[in-house]
Design a protein that fits this description.
Elements: E1 2-7, H1 11-21, E2 27-33, H2 40-54, E3 61-63, H3 81-87, H4 97-107, H5 114-118, H6 131-144, E4 148-152, H7 157-165, H8 167-170, E5 173-177, H9 193-197, H10 199-208, E6 211-215, H11 217-220, E7 224-225, H12 227-236, H13 239-258, E8 265-266, H14 268-277, E9 282-287, E10 289-291, E11 297-299, E12 311-317, H15 319-337
Parallel strand pairs: 1-2, 1-4, 2-3, 4-5, 5-6, 6-12
Antiparallel strand pairs: 7-8, 9-12, 10-11
Helix pairs in contact: 1-2, 1-13, 1-14, 1-15, 2-4, 6-7, 7-10, 12-13, 12-15
Amino acid sequence: MKIILDLDTGIDDALAIAYCLGSPDAELIGITGTYGNVTVEQGVKNSRVLLSVLGYPDIPVIPGRDRPWGRGPASPFSPSEASSFIHGSNGLGGVEVNEYVAAEDELLGGEATEESSCVTSTEDGKDISGESAMAFYRDAVQRYGDDLTIVPTGALTTVAEAMKLYEDVTNARIVLMGGALTVPGNVSAVAEANISQDPDAADYVFRHGTNVTMVGLDVTLQTLLTKAHTHQWREQGTRAGKLYAEIVDYYIGAYATTSPYLGGYGLHDPLAVAVALDPSLVTFYDTNLKVDCGGRTIGDEQRMQDPVKRTHVALAVDATQFVEELMVRVGNLFGRAG
């Protein structure tokens, strides 16, 4: 399956990249940048350096829209204090990822490679139109058809804009991480963070997308990673394993402060990638959704009788199988990258 990830690259997005690259049944053809955990510019930088560390520097990373619908140039997006606390100052737990690239270059007895030096470039991050990202969606849908899945894990602004511009994107298979139907939200009693970043854009996706899967808090909070898992990555002794252990340990620590009852952190974004590849991991409820102005994902009363259900909501998950698969796939990837 061809995959495009639309990421606001914080810590769980970083693990989504690793899961996708470590999956033999997936080909990551590109990453587009959105906002939420971090700004688009920071997220693009994070994605590029992680791809370099993992051994895939040639995968394109394209910035998308950098602010919600209706917000003008004078009001750019900035992460909330909660997001900065959970994901760290740079979205990756404050870990200086470039140091891992430089350390590897020194170990190999060479100078910084072209790939490792380019990951700090911010030139593309200045593009706030998102037109290149939207055209990338269109071209990929036209080229790959049903073999393509778009997996957004942040604000849905770029995806919604692309749907407005190109009917082909409206018909694309979309598996998104976001929303909450049967559990409380994580930014309010009813709203989940990714949806709440741009409720209007999310509403457009749910109303106009013909094949949308919602992987929300209903299932992601059932899939937990702990420091016992990250210890296995450290023991591999690879650059990538050590880096990811350090990043994810920060995340686990943040969750221990905000949600100590969980006993770990929910694998939000990696689960969306896993469901894109293997829908049998979850149980679905098919319905038609809308998003209200407060960011709540809820059934659309005006489409209750519509026999065509546009959204497949994940409500149960085989958490044990998923976590085991994740550890195998990312572990193998870290070994190859090392």
